[in-house]
Amino acid sequence: MLPRWWQDALLLLPRLVCGYLLAFEFGAVKFGLPWSPPDHNLGLFEVAFWFPGDVAAYGGLFAVLPGFFAWMGAFSEAVGGLLLALGLGTRVSAFLIICTMLVAIFMQQIQQGMWNTLPAAGFLWAALPGLVLGSGRFGLDYILAKPRRHEHV
Predict the structure, then answer these.
(1) Which are the contacts of 142, defined by CB distance < 8 A and separation ≥ 6?
(2) What is the distance of C-alpha 139 from the center of its chain?
(3) Residue 63: which residues within 8 A CB-CB, separation 6 or more?
(4) Which of 30, 63, 100, 120 has the most C-beta neighbours closer than 10 Å?
(5) CA 78 from chain center: how many Å?
(6) Tens digits of pLDDT across the chain (153 residues)
């Protein structure tokens, strides 16, 4: 928590935008959740059929375990994005998002030029304050930890 409420409010904005876009736009087309587009025919927690093939093309360990890495990447975007937006498990979800965005930048997008890395880099930078500072006072982490904060006073 930062010293002033408006500072926490400034942390809330990128956390909400990043989390919403990852959960409801980018992740929902790769990972089956109740809000995934119906025309994608994804079952609950199912990865889109095309995504493991994209991940395998990165080579190395990604080619050995493409299903695992596709599931982790899609999960971190869809579920991690939702958790980030809610401020629940903020540091863990931010860490997963940052790892996924680093893979997206360096294994997928940088080959097409720096301009193509901007969406993933934006998500990475928007998740970074959540990793370092947590949710702030406008997140579920803060609300759930409130009783514990008074025990040490």
Answers:
(1) 1, 87, 134, 135, 136
(2) 16
(3) 56, 57
(4) 100
(5) 7
(6) 788 999 999 999 999 999 999 999 999 999 999 999 999 999 999 999 999 999 999 999 999 999 999 999 999 999 999 999 999 999 999 999 999 999 999 999 999 999 999 999 999 999 999 999 999 999 999 999 977 655 554
Three-class SS state of 31 = strand
- Chain Cα centroid distance, residue 134: 14
**For tokens 């803060």, what's the residue?**
142
Instruction: Please say whether the beta carbons of 97 and 80 come within 8 A.
Output: yes
> Which stretches of the chain are DSSP H helices?
5-21, 51-56, 61-64, 66-86, 90-103, 118-133, 140-151
Q: List 31's β-bridge partners, or say none.
A: 47
Rounded Cα distance between 83 and 81, Å, is 5
Whole-model pTM: value is 0.91
CB neighbours of 73 closer than 8 A, spacing ≥ 6? 30, 51, 55, 100, 103, 104
CA dist 131 and 145 (Å) reads 17
Q: Provide the token pair at 55.
A: 């991940």
